[in-house]
Amino acid sequence: MSHTFHIPVLGLGFTIDTPLKVARYGISSVLSVVDDMLIERMRKFYAKRHNEVYMPIDMKDEDYRARRVCDYLNMVNRKVDEQFEQLRKQAFVQDSDLTRYFELLPDHAALKVKYKQMLTASGEERSRLEAELREGMQKGSIDVNIMAKVDKVNYAANGEMTGDENSDALAALRGFAQSDLRSSVVLSAGMNPRLYSYLEQFSDFYPDAEGTLKKGIILKVSDFRSAFIQAKFLAKKGLWISEFRIESGLNCGGHAFATEGYLIGPILEEFKTKRQEMITELFGMYQQALQAKSIEIAAPPVLRVTVQGGIGTAEEDAFLVEHYNLDGTGWGSPFLLVPEATNVDEATLMNLTKSSPEDFYISAASPLGIPFNNYRLSTAEIQRQERIAKGRPGSPCKKKFLVSNTEFTEQPICTASREYQNLKIKQLQSLSLPEEEFQAEFEKVTQKLCLCEGLVTSVYLKNDILEPKENKAVAICPGPNLAYFSKVMSLDELVKHIYGKINLLQGVNRPSIFLNELNLYVEYLRKDIQSHINRLDAKKIKQLEKFKEQLLLGIEYYKNLANQFGGQTEQYLKRFSDELHAVEAQLRSISVRELSEA
Questions:
Q1: Which of 246, 259, 301, 571 shows the greatest Cβ crowding within 10 Å of its Cβ?
Q2: How many domains does the chain have?
C-alpha cells in the first residue's frame, strides 16, 4: 500500500466516484453499490464528459442491477488505469501530477525515501532512481461497499419473486464479482448468511496458482467476537478475510452500530492479543475447505487489521497504528470537506464549515431502525419538519431500497414513506391515547427520513445533473468528529494533516478519540434508559447494568493506557485524566435500578 490510510464509504453518493479523483495518487477508497440508479446516471455522466458512447441498461433488461454495477465499475477501473499511466509518463517537475503523487506519500514510505534521494541525484543515478520510482508506484484500490442486510427481495411485474439471486445485495455482489477490478468488497451492517454463501459462486474470491486473490473480502466490524464468528463462517466455505476493518460503534458516520458498552481501545487490544491465534484457527478451516474444492494453499494469505471512526490528529493515527500493531486507518468524515475528493454540494459544504458539535447527533432517522448519525442543518432534515408542519409527513417512495415493513401491506413498504406514516398515524389516532403519549408516538413515526433520495442529491447538485422535478433536499450523515474541522480543505492539506506535516486543528479544543467515543456511549446509555423508563423489566435492567459495567471497565483500561501515550505534553495527559475522571463520575451517578424503581 502506498498510503497508510483509506477513505471509507461515505453515504450512497459522496464517494461514488472518489476513485476517479484519488486512486491515481495511490489512495484507496470505497464506493457504495447499493443504488444502481445512481450508478447508471454516473456512468452516463462520465460517458458524456469523456465523449464516449453510452449504452443504457434499462430496468426492464435481464439482470439489469448486476450489469449496471459491473459496467460502472469497469468504467471506473478503465479510467483510473488511463489516469495512472498518463501520470507515470510525466516528468519529475514542479506541479506535475507525478510529483504530487510522491509529495503526498508519508515520509517513512520506502518510495518517499527513494524519491528524496532522487531529488538530490543527477545524471545516470537520477535516471535510474526515476525509473525505479515509476516501477514502484501503485494505484489506490477501488473497493466497493455492500450493506449486507440491505437486501430487498425483488418482484416481477406479475407479482412473482424474481429469486434469491436477484435480491439487492446478491445482484450488487454479482456485479462486483463479474467486474474487471482487482480489489475488495467491504461487507458491513451485520451478517447475511445468504449473501455470504453466494460469495462461493465466484472464482475471483479463491486463490490462483500463486496463492493470490484477485478479489478480497473486507469485513467492517465493531467487536472481536462477531468478527471471528463471521470469519469462521466464511473460512469453512474456502473464503478468506483480507481485512478486518474495525469501526467505532458510535464515533463514526452513517449508521451507528453500538456495541454492548465495549469501547474502541479494549476492542483493539483484543484484536492485538488474539490476532495470530485467530489467523491460525481460520487458516486451518480455510485450508481444509479449499482442499475439498481441489485447491491447495501452503500459507495463509495476508489478513490486515485497520481501524476507522473519529480519528482526528496525526498523533492519534500514529498511536493507534503503533500501539495496536494495525496495518492502517480510515479517515472518513473530514474528507467531506475536500471537494476534489468527495461530492458535497456548495450549500451543504458551507454549512458544514460553520457547524458546532451540537449539530451532529445520533438519531432514529433511518428506516432500517438502526441509530443514524444525522446533521441538524441538512436540507433534508429541514424539509422533513416542514412536511410535518404542513400536515404531510413522510416522503414519496420511489427507489424502495429500504422497504421492510409489512404492518399494513402485503409487500414491504418503507417507514419513511408517506404511505406508511399516514397509515401509522391514522392507527395512532384511533387508539385515543393521552396527548403526551400520542405526541411521543407521532414523533417516533415521523422522524424517519428518506435516505435513498437524500443521500444521492448532493452528487446530482454538485455535477449539475439534478432533473427538473427531483427533490433538492440533501441528507448527509457525518461522524461527530467532523465538528472540529471548520474549513474547506484541499486533498494535499488533509493528507499532510493525516501525516503530521501540518495541523489543521491547531488551537481547536477537541477531546481525544477515546474520550469522544466514551462520551457518546454515556449519552447513548442515558437515552436508552430514558426511552425504556416506563417499561424497565428485569431483562432490560440487566442489559443496561452490563452495558454500564463494560463502560467502567473501559475507563479503567484507559487509565492504564494513558501511561503509554508517547510524545504527549504533561498538559495533554492531565487534561485526558481530568476528563476521564469527570466522565467516570457522570457514569457512576447513573443508577439503573434506582431509575427503574422511581
A1: 246
A2: 4
Other CB atoms within a 10 A radius of the CB of residue 89 amount to: 9
Residue 511 Cα distances to 99, 228, 329, 522, 580, angstroms: 36, 31, 19, 15, 10
Tell me the average confidence (pLDDT) per consecutive run of 10 residues in the chain, 598 residues long: 93 96 98 96 97 94 95 98 97 95 96 96 95 96 92 74 84 97 94 94 94 95 95 97 96 91 97 97 97 94 96 95 97 97 97 93 89 93 94 90 88 92 93 90 92 94 93 94 95 98 93 95 91 82 93 96 79 88 93 63
User: Which cell is 150 given?
Assistant: 440491505
- How many angstroms separate the Cα of 81 from the Cα of each of 29, 75, 425, 441? 15, 10, 53, 53
Element (H, E) at 374: strand 372-375
Asked whether residue 410 falls in the same domain as residue 531, the answer is: no
* Chain-centre distance for alpha carbon 199: 21
Residue found under cell 452490563:
546
- Amino acid at position 495, single letter: V
How far from each other are the two terminal CA atoms of the chain, in whole angstroms? 56
For residue 17, CA distances in Å to 13, 100, 339, 352 come to: 8, 20, 12, 21
Domain co-membership, 546 together with 498: no
Please report, as a single letter, which amino acid is at residue 187.
L
CA distance 297 to 53: 43
Round to whole Å and give the CA distance between 541 and 593: 7
Query: CA geometry: angle at 549 spanning 544 and 551, to 5°?
Result: 100
* Cα dihedral 458→460→463→465 (10° resolution): -160
Domain annotation covers residue 548: yes
Q: 31 — phi, psi (to 5°)?
A: -115, 150
* 559 touches 580 (CB < 8 A): yes
CA–CA separation, 335 and 495 (whole Å): 10
Do 435 and 326 have their domain in common?
no
d(CA 60, CA 67): 12
Alpha carbons 111 and 118: distance in angstroms, whole number: 10
297 in helix, strand or coil? coil
Residue 133 lies in a domain: yes
CA dihedral 89, 93, 97, 100 (to 10 degrees): 130
User: How many Å apart are CA 218 and CA 305, to the nearest integer?
Assistant: 10
565 assigned to some structural domain = yes
Full-model pTM: 0.94
Long-range contacts formed by 563-571: CB under 8 A, 24+ apart: 564/323, 565/319, 566/319, 567/315, 568/315
Q: Which of 20, 113, 2 lies closest to 459 in space, CA to CA?
A: 20
Q: Which of 132, 60, 65, 64 is nearest to 92 (CA)?
A: 132
